[in-house]
Structures are given as structure tokens and as C-alpha cells.
Design goal:
The complex is a heterodimer of chains A (124) and B (183). Chain A has 124 residues and is of the alpha/beta class. Chain A has helices at 35-49, 68-86, 102-113; strands at residues 4-6, 14-17, 23-30, 57-66, 91-97, 119-123. The radius of gyration of chain A is 13 Å and the shape is globular. Chain A starts with a strand and ends with a strand. Chain B is globular, with a radius of gyration of 17 Å. In chain B, helix 2 (28-43) runs antiparallel to helix 3, helix 3 (49-75) runs antiparallel to helix 6 (151-158) and helix 5 packs antiparallel against helix 6 (151-158). Chain B has helices spanning 3-15, 28-43, 49-75, 109-120, 124-135, 151-158; strands at 18-23, 86-92, 95-105, 164-169, 174-182. Chain B has one domain: 2-Layer Sandwich (Heat Shock Protein 90). Classes of the chains: A alpha/beta (124), B alpha+beta (183). At the A-B interface, helix 2 of A face helix 2 and helix 3 of B. Chain B: InterPro entries: DUF6272. Chain B: Pfam families: DUF6272.
């Protein structure tokens, strides 16, 4: 499966989803002009990717700030992964936050509450 | 603009201890640039990073709300009188206050007031529950170009006192809506 790569801008994150290895990465800040439009290709890609039972998926998130419409999109991404995990797919999430950014930690904890898949919160 | 008017305007802005004030067309690039300026300014103020992020995020939510509302009326073929939006950030003692104002159509006022009254009546746990409930609504149910309906709840959660708002009739079609969030 093809990979998905979206370069970062000053208000949208770097995204790299590798369909072969199952390594997914979202990094940066997210408050684009229209979050639903921005994340639309991410949903489409994931939907395809999650149809297959393999490979195992690891999503590394390094988001230091998200506006509320980006939060909604990320919740939906996690929900898709959680559903796949519930159906037997090997899925894990690792949330990386900067030690001096309490808000990123709060945010990570709140995202974690909504899912049952393995979700590690790691300081960096 | 005449010199005396400019002087009076500047004096009013200083009296209010405003860090920034913007009134005009809210393009995404304006929102972004002002946001960066605010962050740079606050980073030099020796305040906690979490407070900087709270001020920045409440600013982004308010500015994007004004912009999204304006864009949504435009999409309906009912553009709002140009440049009627304003956003300001002020320092008030130990607190920062982010405020915005914009014209809203008269028919939207009851719904908006009801949402705000509801949020004003909720404690921390109630706000969190309202937030979680809203996040579970399907993305498709949210109108194109609008947000996720989380902005006001998120601001209420970050605020150090209940959200303050006011509505004032401008003419038969429009009200001026203002929102004040203390961090």
C-alpha cells in the first residue's frame, strides 16, 4: 500500500504514514484553516489501510498544540484505530510530549481516556 | 483617520491594557500571524508555558469562530457587513483576558445565548462531560466550514471564571455578540 506523506506548515503537522511497515507519525502543531479538509486524506488513507489485517500499527504522535476542530479529527483517527484493535489488529499509540508543556500532557491523558488500545504517554 | 481620533483610539486601547487588537477581515493568515506575535510576546513575559498555551488557544478558538461564522453566512449568500469582527487580548492584573466581538444574525442569538448560559451553569466536571459528549458526535453532522462545536466548551474549561458574553441589537437583522474569556 502507498504511503501518505504531508509536509508540515506553520499551522499544520507533518504526517507520514508508512503502509508497508505500519509506522504512522504525526508531528507539530495543528490549527489549519479547515481541519476537516486537512484531515480528509488521512481518514481516506486509514480506512483503506485498516481493511487489511496486517501489518501491526504504531502511531507516534508528537503534537504540541491542536485547535478544537483538529482535536475532533484526532479523536476520530484514534477511534478508527481503536475499532481495528478491538477487531484483533495489533495497534499501539505513543504520545510524545515536551517535558515543559503541561498542556500537551493534559491533552494526551484526555485522548487516552477514550480508547482501549495500548496508549503510552512519553516525556521527551 | 484624523490625528485626534487616532489619539483617542490609542488612548482607549492603552487604558484597557491591550496587548493586541485586531479589527478587519479575519483571514487565516491574519489569525496565524497575530497568534505568533502573541506567543512571542508572552514568551518574553516570564509566564508559565501552560498559561501561554491557554491564551494562545483561546485566541485561536475565538478568531476562528469569528472567521467561520462570517464564512458560513457568506456561503449561504447572506454576507455579513464587512470587517465587523474584532479580537483583543488584554492583561488584567495577574490574568489575561481574550475577547472578541462580531455581528451575528438575529435568528442565531437565542441558540447562542442558550449555549453560553448552559456552559456558565456547569462546573469543571459538567464542562468535561459536555466536551466529551460533543466529541462523540459524528463529523458529518457538523456543517461544512464550521468547527467541531467544541470551541466554546474548550474555552470555558480553560477559563478561570465563567464565560462572559453580551448581545446588543444593531438593527433588525444583526446583533453584536461579544465574548470575554479570562485565563
Amino acid at each position: 500500500m502507498d504511503s501518505l506523506r504531508i509536509e508540515a506548515t506553520s499551522c499544520s503537522p507533518f504526517i507520514e504514514f508508512d503502509g508497508t511497515t505500519g509506522a504512522l507519525r504525526i508531528e507539530g502543531e495543528s490549527y489549519p484553516e479547515n481541519s476537516f479538509d486537512f484531515y480528509a486524506p488521512v481518514f481516506t488513507w486509514l480506512e483503506d489501510f485498516l481493511k487489511d489485517p496486517a501489518p501491526a500499527v504504531v502511531l507516534d504522535i508528537g503534537l504540541s498544540y491542536l485547535n478544537t476542530s483538529s482535536i475532533k479529527c484526532l479523536i476520530d483517527v484514534l477511534e478508527m484505530l481503536d475499532t481495528a484493535h478491538g477487531a484483533g489488529r495489533d495497534v499501539a499509540v505513543r504520545w510524545h510530549y515536551d517535558r515543559d508543556n503541561d498542556r500537551a500532557l493534559d491533552m494526551a491523558e484526555e485522548f487516552k481516556e477514550d480508547v482501549t488500545l495500548p496508549f503510552d504517554i512519553l516525556a521527551r | 483617520m484624523k490625528g485626534t481620533d487616532l489619539f483617542n483610539l490609542q488612548e482607549l486601547l492603552s487604558r484597557q491594557k491591550l496587548l493586541i487588537c485586531f479589527s478587519g477581515p479575519f483571514s487565516h493568515s491574519v489569525i496565524e500571524e497575530l497568534g505568533k506575535a502573541v506567543r512571542n510576546h508572552l514568551e518574553n513575559e516570564q509566564i508559565e508555558k501552560s498559561s501561554i498555551m491557554d491564551v494562545f488557544s483561546v485566541y485561536v478558538e475565538q478568531a476562528q469562530n469569528v472567521r467561520n461564522y462570517t464564512a458560513s453566512r457568506e456561503a449561504l449568500g447572506r454576507p455579513i457587513p464587512a470587517n465587523s469582527g474584532i479580537v483583543v487580548i488584554a492583561k488584567d492584573g495577574d490574568h489575561y483576558v481574550v475577547s472578541s466581538g462580531n455581528l451575528v444574525e438575529a435568528e442565531d442569538v437565542p441558540g447562542l445565548s442558550a449555549s453560553l448560559e448552559k456552559l456558565r451553569g456547569l462546573d469543571k466536571a459538567g464542562l468535561k462531560a459536555a466536551y466529551k459528549e460533543q466529541t462523540r458526535k459524528p463529523r458529518d453532522s457538523m456543517g461544512a466550514g464550521s468547527g467541531a462545536g467544541l470551541g466554546l466548551i474548550d474555552m470555558a474549561r480553560k477559563a478561570t471564571r465563567p464565560l462572559e458574553y453580551s448581545v446588543r441589537a444593531v438593527d433588525s437583522r444583526y446583533y453584536f455578540f461579544s465574548l470575554e474569556v479570562q485565563i
